[in-house]
Amino acid sequence: MAEKLMDFDEAIRRYDPVWGLEVHVELSTKTKLFCPAPYKFGEAPNTELTPVSLGLPGSLPVINKAAIDDAIRLGLALHCHINEWSQWSRKNYFYPDMPRDYQITQADKPLNGKGYLDVQTEDGETFRVPILRAHVEDDAGKNNHVGGADGRIEGADHSLVDYNRAGVPLVEIVTEPVTGTGAKAAEIAGAYIREIRDIARALGISEGKLEQGNIRADVNVSLRESPDAPLGTRSETKNVNSFRGIERTLIYEIRRQAALLADGGEVLQETRHWDESTQSTAGGRLKTDANDYRYFPDPDLVMVHTTQEHIDELKASLPEMPSHRRARLQKEWGFTDIQMRDVNNAGAVDLIDETVKEGASAAGALKWWLGELSREANEKSVSLEELPVTPTDVASLEKLIADGKLNDRLAKQTMAGVLKGEGTPEEVVAKHGYKIVGGGDELDGIMDKALADNPDVAEKLKNGDMKPMGVIIGAVMRATRGQADAKAVSSLVIKKVRS
């Protein structure tokens, strides 16, 4: 039964939304957090295991130093206070994908304390998202739901457990309750998680692929009657792994909770699940409080001691942060604020940067990645990076245009061939025989025929009226199957009618 929803604008008028994200960033270390088992996405189920990652009796964990260093670097990028001493705790709960029946995490003594991240909205406003902590923990395995759509729990008739992911190091970034966002709540949440993705990639600590679960978020939402009122009861939608899903979860929960409260109902403190097929959340289990997890220090692990000297060394190794890089590239490329915003929202910064490095102009790279290729990606519901075209392909195509070997129409046909898997732009051009018809008796004859077929147009052109030039150019392009150079045709026609 569909839940009642309030119009979003009305919900924002009547209630003040408060939200928070728990973002899980999977670290790309060679081995897991507490054992030497490797991990690579997509391997055969239950093949990347050790006794430690399976939680077998008598197995003892050993801390992965590389994971700790990666977590500190992420904490520094998020302006967190790095604590000199941090402690491992056991978080006790039963899930079929948790082989030990407890998770090794950091409770009251996390590695990274309070911080913040500034994000920009589409209108150029900067909003500071407060971060409570960014602690380290090991991941659970993965429940593969069978019988439902896209492997989701909705509609599944049974589940299988793959423990390959169990023990993979995570950094969980927990925000403070985020207030004051109003109607921009979803936009700011989306900008925040995109920026975290970009930072993780810039640091080289995670592949940052949401579709593979490298980054996923628990979305917490509550409503209150006014900014001065106490916080309301929150829902927590678990493991949302797409930017749009996170934004739409927030909007849906605001609408759902507003309708519930307006009818005198009560919001349950519960976990929920986002269903992409219905674009809605569904109730799961009642949410437990922290003390229900019975946290206590893990007796098998010592505390982590991080010296200030080591923190300073890691800080000195940080690369240029994404926000600073975008500002630099925007200046180098000469893009407007709106153009750069569109590039960032499309996830095309790296693609355009690499295309320019391959020799294309910034304007040409922008035209392709945010034009033809963005339309292709949207039609196929994939990211630009998932398209079968590379920055080298785009730069090569731009060179063919600059060298006068292709016009815009032929270039689009060539790109279509690249997207179909026909090869590089040069290979597609050779296969189809694409070339510009730019001169010679053949083109001369085609222009003569176009002028003869349109004597009234020819007369206007002869008298200096260039408005109907498109009629002649169109006729020539049709006759040459789009292989003529429109600019060259225009110049040649003018010379012909005036001679």
Could you describe the 3D structure shown?
The structure is a single chain. The protein is 39% helix and 18% strand. The protein is an alpha+beta fold and 499 residues long. The strands form 4 sheets. Strands 5-6-9-1-10-11-12-13 form an 8-stranded mixed β-sheet. A 3-stranded antiparallel β-sheet has the order 4-3-14, with no helix packed on it. The longest helix is centred in the middle third of the chain and has 20 residues, at 243-262. The radius of gyration is 29 Å and the shape is elongated. The model has no long low-confidence stretch (mean pLDDT 90). It is an enzyme of class 6 (ligase). Pfam families: GatB_N, GatB_Yqey. Heterotrimer of A, B and C subunits.
Q: What characteristics describe this protein?
A:
18% strand; single chain; alpha+beta; 499 residues; 3 domains; Arc Repressor Mutant, subunit A
Q: Strand sequence of the main sheet, in spatial order?
A: 5-6-9-1-10-11-12-13
What is the general shape? Answer: elongated
Average pLDDT value? 90
**Cα-atom radius of gyration:** 29 Å
Number of domains: 3
Beta content? 15-25%
Distance between the termini: 78 Å
Low-pLDDT windows of residues: none
Helix proportion: 25-40%
Number of helices: 17
Structural class: alpha+beta
Largest sheet composition: 8 strands, mixed
Number of strands: 15
What is the subunit arrangement here?
Answer: single chain
